[in-house]
Amino acid sequence: EAVTPIANLALNLNYQKRLPGIHLAIGLYSLWVEENYPEGLRHIDEVSKISERVDDWMSLYMPLWASAFYLAARLSLKCEFEKGVKYTNKSLDLSNSANDLIGIAFSKSCESMNYAFQGKIKEAYKKSEETMQKAKEIGTMYVEGGAYVTYGTCCYFKGLSDRAEADLLKGLDF
Is the pLDDT confidence value at 56 over 80? Predict the structure, then answer.
């Protein structure tokens, strides 16, 4: 409700540079909070359409990456695994093209969890190891914390309970 007047103003002013971020916020809220998938997907689709027209790197990259990443996570949680992988690959491709190491680590983490939810534990564990390696290269607390949680979760699914507990607890430290 609070965003609607801002979105309408941006639309009326044809403020293309900020519309992707506004559509992203509305779309993610619709998907994750309201669980209104048609509305959320409509806004996420607008992010892609507008971002690709705007001649501004941050207006292009960040909304496209975030929409792909969060849509991948949501679809994976809904057991729409193939669609989830499609959007995970999109976020990974965007991250690689921008040389965004944090985006690469998060995308690999999302891919790992997609495999885990499918019961493909071997693949999930392998991707979680890649996520840990990338997180340690980056060396930021936020990325490492998420990587430890992903890795610990995959260790748990693999039956490595002691390792899972240790890494999940490390993830809480960050």
Answer: no
